[in-house]
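>> received
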Amino acid sequence: MSLNLETATPSHAPARAPMPAMGDVAALPAQLLRHVLDHIDYGIACVDDSGRLLYANRAARESWPRVEVAREPLKGAIHAASTRGTRRLVDIEGADGRFSTAVIPLAEVGGGSSHVLLVLGKHSVCERLSSYWYGVARGLTAAEQAVLEEIAAGSSPRDIAERRCVSLATVRSHITSLRGKTGTNNLYALLREMAQLPPIRCTPMEFAAVNPPPARPM
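>> returned
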């Protein structure tokens, strides 16, 4: 007896909106697809079965030196993906710490050799532009925004106070205000919310806007 999935859906489950019809992706200009992927804050690269780089978005191009250093650990995972269709998460120790790369087999394209997708781990909890938008939406002050970004980078309240030359009580006051404005109960909840922000990359103009040059000393 076949199972009717519609009648098997729990009554409390939210109704799903119908998926809108999509156009022919193959008809999209390659330049547009590259532009779309360059806005994503995850390094995305495609290699062939020998590990030769075929494509990398902007985030991957910026992180590629780290990948080159880790070519040997990735070599076996790429070979397994292209020959056996296995997926793997590879942890790599780099000069700036450990990062992870997902190795995912892709279906053969045009009857050629197998291709492998590499998704590179991010450098931080969230990208600077996403953090900036988050702060604007929550009405954060410049000082609160700065503390938020320090927290996202892994700094402790004491580290933030020493780096910004303010008292620990001031930093804790900013954190209390952050929790109130973001509706989070603790720092873990705040970090979890930030990690769920859309992973959007800065354009050069946006980077300049959210990374102003340091003020000259009076």
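>> The mean pLDDT is 78.
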